[in-house]
Amino acid sequence: MILLTRKAEFSSAHFYWNDSWSQEENERVFGKCANRNGHGHNYTLEVTVAGEVDPVSGFVVDLKELKEILEREVVSVYDHRHLNLEVPEFKTVIPTTENIAIAIWNRLDGKIRNSKLHRVRVYEMPDLFADYYGDLSAD
Amino acid sequence: MPTDPSTIAKKTPIASLSRRYHFSASHRLHTEQYDEARNREVFGKCNNPHGHGHNYVVQVTFKGPVDATTGMVCNLGDLDAFARTNLLDRFDHTNLNTFDCFAQKVSTTENLAIEMHKIFQSFPFARLENVHVEETSNNSFDYAGEGSAPLETGR
Question: How high is the ipTM of this complex?
Answer without folding.
Answer: 0.86
